[in-house]
Amino acid sequence: MAAANAAKPVTGGRIDVHTHLMAPALDPEEWEMEECLRLAKRAGVSRHVLLGNLYLGGKDWVHAEPDGIRAVNTHTLKAMARHPDRFIGFCYLNPANPVDFTQDEITRCVVDGGMKGLKFEAAVKATDRRYDPICERAEKLGITIMHHTWYNVLGCVWPTESTPAEAADLARRFPNVSFIFAHLGGGRERGVHDLVDLPNVCYDTSGSYAETELVEYAAKQLGAERLIFGSDYPGRNIGVQAGRVLGARLSPREHELILGGNLARVLKLEGAAA
Amino acid sequence: MNPVTDTSVFSGQWPFRKLPYRTPGELKEHLSGRGVREAWVSSLDAILYPDPMHGNVPLAETVARDPFFVPVAVLDVTLAKWRRDARECLEQREFRALKLTPNYHSYPLTDPNAAALADLAGEAGVPVCIQTRMMDERAHHPLMKVPQVPASEIAALARRHPRTRFLACAADNGMLKAFAGIENLWSEISFVENRNTLFKAIGVVGASRLVFGTHSPLLYFEASAAKLDSDPEDVSAEQLETVCVKNATELLGARKK
């Protein structure tokens, strides 16, 4: 069989922008990190953006309080320290938390801890003005914000979940901040058009099953340079989600950009093409 | 990697998505170029047309003499003529399996006609494929939300008809748990996905009850194929061969004349 991932690694390496380590422990579990890296290697993926062990946020982890946020980010910092060449951290935040706490957490995780971006899940709608001081800080630091987005015909999973259109409102108000919207597979064609006129926004390819034509459609509307491979591991499979990109009828160069080059550029990673 | 049998592909139009590879010829070129040696194909049109034979017959006429394809007829057991359709498909049209789409044809698998079809298939020696879903339910057309077929109904039907072979197409992680231990029920893995897909699926139902399928052309072939790229530490070559070819051969069986 012409295996899905036969043409393994691309120049600069494949990077998964959407990885969680979710084993229920305050410290990253060695077995989970090793399993993640072992399975990723088979798909030619060498680095991961860790978006946090969200369950450490507490019972209502989507609306985590400061203690929960701190636990999530400490877990990420420890995983980064254990595998500095493999794990890139994003700082998980809840805009509803006190401003002082959030600013201190950005200092702890990004300025001092070396994280490369911020991650918002669904704590408050992206149209909420409590995002403003956080986005202003992100602009000053020159870091990227990833925001969960989805269009769900069955209704939002959480009332505070944002659609791509709502996240686009935020990105439009902060045109100098680099954003990555999560889940092209959740926003689909409608989501693509929400961000088509926002050059500061990229779309991660994760979300749902690997439906044909969607990656091609997004690449045509946005340009392949605005798509970034994400798996949403461990809920999803890294190889399967990479297969969504490799199965798309795009050029090898476009595959390469989506699987790693674009994220290296956005995060200004060492060795990234200008 | 050795050639595989793809137990769930479709030909035709699907009104909810633009699809590539819509004709049997395009589908064959796409799949055979990726290592598929045999593909079980159904008509997409047959799922939504009022009379599924308007999809089944053209498909049969196109693929009848092509050994690459195993034609699978979609039947609607709520139609008064379903027995006649079944006979025509099996006796005159060379279909080698029957497929039910209970969620798109609006009946539960507890319907007596579903039981009657299971008996008919068992007597004919052909498998019954139950299409559990066609798309992620979160992404359906807002005016046509079609829930997945309940795993409990599939399991119960299979248990009530132990002499009939069943295939749950587009089963997911949760369904596998409901299917564990049912000897006459196989699961097709195009919608099974988790961190270590095949290894974990084998852990739930065993390699002997899983078959490879891609749900092409609705899902990227390369995504499903990646599930076979397992670490040999996790999935042995023998287990892989079982999932890729052997089980499909057993499931299809030899038709009774």
Relevant CATH superfamily of chain B:
Metal-dependent hydrolases
Helix-strand sequence of chain B:
EHEHHEHEHHEHEHEHEHH
Number of DSSP helical runs of chain A: 9
Question: How much strand content do the residues of chain B show?
Answer: 15-25%
Listing every helix as H and every strand as E from the N terminus to the C terminus, the arrangement of chain A reads EHEHEHEHEHEHEHEHH
Distance between the termini of chain A: 37 Å
Mean pLDDT of chain A: 94
Pick out the low-confidence regions of chain B.
Answer: none
The domain tally of chain A reads 1
Q: Which of globular, elongated, flat, extended, rod-shaped describes the shape of chain B? A: globular
Q: For the largest sheet of chain B, list the strands in their spatial order.
A: 1-2-3-4-5-6-7-8
Predict the CATH topology of chain A: TIM Barrel
Assign the CATH architecture of chain B. Alpha-Beta Barrel
Q: What is the tally of beta strands of chain B? A: 8
What is the class of chain B in the CATH system? Alpha Beta
Number of domains of chain B: 1
- Uncertain segments of chain A are 1-11
Q: Give, in spatial order, the strands making up the sheet with the most strands of chain A.
A: 1-2-3-4-5-6-7-8
